[in-house]
């Protein structure tokens, strides 16, 4: 079985959990006999390709012949969606639509069959101000990739809204079934104040897909109730965690104090303000604790000011964004890991902490809470319960040891190979359904 997969990031160049999930998933699929061609906006050349073939979209040259410019069937495939904005997939910033209209007016006499319009895009692969523009360009390149790789894949898999247009484009060009993966909905990221453009793309992607994979039952319910996607079309496959082949040595600790860690984007969704309020309460009861906030985000300045106002700046440390081995070292140095997310579709970081033998506290409003028994679960808004849980784990060694040992045993069973086996079965279902329709 061969899969054409569209992602936005891949280790070692990641901005969050999406890249980590794609890495573990593609490795697991390889172990399950599935060949993966992984397309990303910008590859750097140092990605691990021992189990996956990485295609750099920035290297792909899109080209259209004069016959295609005049082919209405081609344009029906290309012009498949328009949302309420000035962004239309397949209309590049170079005004391709204007170019096409002008060429149509010229008639066939001004064209030779050999005439070809070509364009190559250089993607940043980041999440900057021109993100919507890159999403549209990526879809254009995806159509070209699907044509170039004709006959080399059986199914298409697109991760999160950033790649949904790309997945739709590849499906329209190739006729192959499409699976979309929802790692986080716009409601998770923004609450009720959603970005309508992003919501429209998410909904269009899921409506066009043959199957939707949700990372938790929590996410599955949102997809069904808030996007109107039929329940029978949405399948839950929980994420997993990858264990390193060799255990790295324990880093040296420079302090004797207990260390409580928050690791993630410092943004509304992740609940960093609740972590700070709980920290202040803990420090009133026990002084020898340090709190680490590892990450970056739009709430950083707000959080720093709040820490200063609470008078706990000498007990608080901001590391900035961590990646790769630095993340693992941070977990090794931690005595407690806290994920107080307001809305977390899944949450891989608690699994990574438990893998490092660290007891964890997670919000009940997280998908990972569905698969963990040996994590302390609190409502994200209940600062008193959160502070009590932290206090208990840093004060009572037996309690901390029990959660660490039981948690490590529990997380050992959450392997990507198992999750990938379920995804492979979903691929087979949509392939069989597509064959039956022919």
Outline the biggest β-sheet.
7 strands, parallel
Query: How many domain regions?
Result: 2
Q: In percent, how helical is the residue content?
A: 40-55%
Distance between the termini: 19 Å
CATH architecture annotation name of the largest domain: 3-Layer(aba) Sandwich
**Beta-strand fraction estimate:** 15-25%
Q: What is the C-alpha radius of gyration, as a whole number of Å?
A: 24 Å
Strands side by side in the biggest sheet: 3-2-1-6-7-8-9
How would you describe the overall organization of this protein?
This protein is an alpha/beta fold. The chain contains 16 helices and 15 strands. Strands 3-2-1-6-7-8-9 form a 7-stranded parallel β-sheet, with helices on both faces. 43% of the residues are buried. About 11% of the residues have low confidence.
Keyphrases for this structure?
438 residues, alpha/beta, Rossmann fold, seven-stranded parallel beta sheet, 15 strands, 16% strand
Question: Topology, pairings included?
Answer:
Blueprint lengths: L1 E5 L10 H15 L3 E6 L12 E4 L4 E5 H4 L2 H7 L17 H11 L9 E5 L10 H18 L6 E5 L4 H11 L3 E5 L3 H5 L5 H13 L2 E4 L2 H11 L6 E3 L21 E6 L8 H14 L3 E6 L5 H10 L6 E5 L4 H9 L2 E4 L9 H7 L4 E4 L12 E3 L4 H13 L1 H16 L3 H22 L1
Parallel strand pairs: 1-2, 1-6, 2-3, 6-7, 7-8, 8-9, 10-11, 10-13, 11-12, 13-14, 14-15
Antiparallel strand pairs: 4-5
Summarize the structure.
This protein has 438 residues and is α/β, with parallel strands linked by helices.
């Amino acid at each position: 079985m061969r899969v054409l997969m569209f992602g936005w990031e891949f280790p070692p160049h990641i901005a969050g959990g999406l890249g980590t999930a794609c890495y573990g998933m593609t490795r697991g699929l390889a172990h399950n006999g599935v060949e993966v061609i992984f397309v990303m906006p910008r590859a750097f050349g140092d990605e691990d390709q021992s189990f996956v073939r990485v295609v750099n979209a920035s290297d792909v040259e899109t080209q259209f012949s004069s016959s295609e410019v005049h082919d209405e069937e081609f344009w029906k495939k290309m012009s498949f969606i328009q949302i309420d904005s000035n962004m239309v997939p397949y209309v590049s910033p170079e005004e391709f639509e204007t170019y096409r209209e002008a060429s149509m007016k010229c008639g066939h006499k001004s064209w030779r069959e050999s005439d070809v319009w070509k364009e190559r895009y250089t993607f940043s692969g980041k999440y900057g101000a021109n993100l919507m523009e890159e999403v549209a360009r990526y879809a254009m390149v995806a159509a070209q990739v699907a044509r170039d790789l004709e006959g080399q894949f059986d199914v298409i898999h697109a991760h999160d809204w950033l790649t949904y247009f790309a997945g739709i484009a590849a499906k329209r060009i190739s006729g192959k079934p499409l699976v979309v993966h929802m790692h986080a909905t716009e409601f998770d990221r923004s609450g009720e104040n959603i970005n309508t453009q992003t919501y429209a793309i998410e909904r269009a992607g899921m409506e066009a897909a043959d199957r939707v994979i949700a990372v938790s039952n929590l996410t599955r319910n949102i997809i069904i109730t808030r996007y109107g996607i039929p329940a029978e079309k949405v399948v839950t496959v929980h994420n997993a965690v990858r264990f390193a082949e060799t255990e790295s040595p324990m880093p040296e600790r420079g302090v004797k104090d207990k260390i409580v860690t928050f690791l993630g984007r410092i943004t509304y969704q992740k609940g960093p303000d609740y972590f700070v309020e709980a920290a202040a309460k803990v420090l009133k009861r026990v002084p020898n604790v340090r709190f680490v906030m590892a990450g970056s985000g739009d709430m950083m300045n707000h959080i720093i000011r709040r820490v200063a106002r609470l008078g706990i700046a000498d007990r608080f440390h901001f590391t900035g964004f961590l990646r790769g081995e630095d993340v693992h070292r941070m977990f090794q140095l931690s005595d407690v890991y806290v994920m107080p997310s307001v809305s977390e579709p899944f949450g891989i970081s608690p699994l990574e902490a438990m893998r490092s033998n660290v007891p964890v506290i997670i919000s009940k409003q997280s998908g990972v809470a569905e698969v963990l028994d040996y994590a302390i679960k609190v409502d994200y808004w209940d600062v008193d319960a959160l502070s009590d849980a932290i206090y208990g784990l840093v004060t009572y060694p037996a309690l901390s040891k029990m959660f660490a040992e039981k948690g490590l045993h529990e997380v050992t069973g959450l392997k990507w190979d198992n999750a990938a086996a379920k995804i492979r079965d979903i691929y087979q279902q949509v392939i069989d359904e597509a064959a039956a329709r022919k």
